[in-house]
Amino acid sequence: MNGGIGSSDVNWATAKARSDEVNGYPSFSTRNNGFFSRHARQISRSLPSFVKGAEKEKLGRGRWYPNNGSRTARILGFLGRSIWRLRLRLLVVLSFILAIVIFYATPMHRAYRGASLLGGGSNFVIILAANQGGGVMEWKGPREWAIERDSVKNKKKYAKKWGYNLEIVDMSTKKRYAHEWRESWEKVDTIRNCMRKYPRAQWFWWLDLNTFIMEPSYSLQNQVFNNLADNTYRNINLYNPLKIAHPFNNSYLDAESLSLVGDGKASSIDLIIPQDCAGFNLGSFFIHRSTWTDRLLDIWWDPVGYEQKHMEWEHKEQDALEHLYINQPWIRSHTAFIPQRKINSFPKGACGDNGEDKRIHYKEADRDFVVNMAGCEWGRDCWGEMYNFRELSNKLNRTPWEKFKDGISDRIKAMKAKPDNKEGKS
What is the value of pTM for the model shown? Predict the structure, then answer.
């Protein structure tokens, strides 16, 4: 019996192996012997964790919080979800900003401003009187060339900004007739030629060379023409340095000619001129394309009138226009005046017999539009005045970034100057 029992005796290892075979396991076991089996817990810890212990519908299904949901991760997650929910609105805003950048960084804004039906810039022509080749009566030196260079550059920049047409006219003395010189009188003929060259333009702005546009951010539309009735006056008695009798009192004239303001409508204004202390000033004025203007230019340029009066008219075409205004009723009904500092401020020293005149002289605090160094060639320094006003304009129209840089530069200079002053005192 002992032998039978011994032959049928099964140890524990043999029984366990047979049990594994019955349960479908092979004769050898690989559990907890592979790499993934041994490191499963460490790998699972490094995987993203998900919010537990709450309803998925309320907290959001499958939200990922790296680094076990730190504060920074939650903030980033919140921002990401907010951006995603507002993606359409953000896309619209970004598209709008991009359109603005493209509009101003490319010539599109100049094309818009120049279009007659949009910005209206093509309706205006700036006529700049220049003498680029030197005159017949005298040759230009370095200072005269510098004045012309700064003036031309100033007008080109302004016209380009607002989409205006710019006509630079060589005012060299030309012999228009066999028996006379009419250097200053060519202003009238030049305006007529520009009207033919720009048939779609409506307003022509004449500027003398010794002018400088101080505020290039002012458009002609905003400065003058958008509210023409309020920016001009028809009744010369409001400021009348020439003491012209106004209006006419002849009984045979019509009601419009006898009125202080003509028909009173801004649409009938065809000539806009400023007045200085001596009367009309044509260093900066506007003239409108019309049948009335054609008639005025013909009579203004009439050689018969010039032949008879040119010895009396010291200021040439300016005195001729004053003569027409005084004696011709039809001239007054379409002429308006504009406060001088609107388009033609003077520096101190021009019209200076009575000191500074708030109606005439440039004021930095008021940011006057244009300064005209009229008469600077008679005892004043034209280049010095042009240079000072140019630098002042650059200073007044600095960008915020330029102001910041200039402020830093000024502080550095002030810091360097303090040790020098201490050394000088010692």
Answer: 0.71
